[in-house]
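Mods, move this if it's the wrong board.
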Amino acid sequence: MSTKGVLYIVATPIGNLGDITIRALEILKSVDVVAAEDTRHSQKLLQHFGIEARMHAYHDHNDATAVGRLIDMLEQGLSIALISDAGTPLISDPGYKLVHDARHRGLNVVPIPGPSAVITALSAAGVSTDRFSFEGFLPAKTTARSKSLSALKSESRTMVFYESPHRISESLRDAINAFGGSRSAVLARELTKTFETFLAGSLEEIKQQVDADENQRRGELVLIIKGEPKRVQRDVIDENSENLLKTLLEELPTKQVASLAAKITGLPKNLLYQRVLELRSDDS
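Not the wrong board. Structure tokens:
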């Protein structure tokens, strides 16, 4: 089967070169062009596996020009493998415009799955992963970063962020301000590499470790923060609470019934008071 005219989205290792897949190697060897975020960096990867490939730079700074050239190559029948510096392309890395335009032109886009820092971190973090929100990199400036974190205060899903080593301490500080120092979190560093580290605990505890050890402020970082616990619905009076109100009403005045029932059930006193008034009205 010919591989001509296909755009392959190829995931590459995030650290340990042994994590590259057999299929990824086969595709990188077979395509006409490898489009890379940093051709010098990616050339080392290809050389390690003995792959000789025609390289083409594709990154955010040459986006418009590069997209046009690569699309032309695809339409001429050439096959292209898009890779990023590490991990899966487009996941906080360049590639969206190229994939969008390729699909818009009716060209075939084929994903070659493999390593991704967000999934790798989640799989070993020991946090709830049934629902999570990937937020990518936080803004570099304090005001914008704080605003972004504050907007997530009520997020119940596990939140995943990428962060740079020189900003991690400030980002943890702003996360503490947004979610509270006791919020559970995990900081994953240098995934799949020699100095891979997972720090787990509260945001305050993790920040203390990061501030105390400069090694924790080096390398690639993934910050995972537990979502806000789901709150029990407190605006509905269940059958047991209703029966309690009726029993108390036989002996106590309205305000006392609402106050005592609130202490017993944990429901809002105003909600219970309103229901007591309704019950008294029904009896009158």
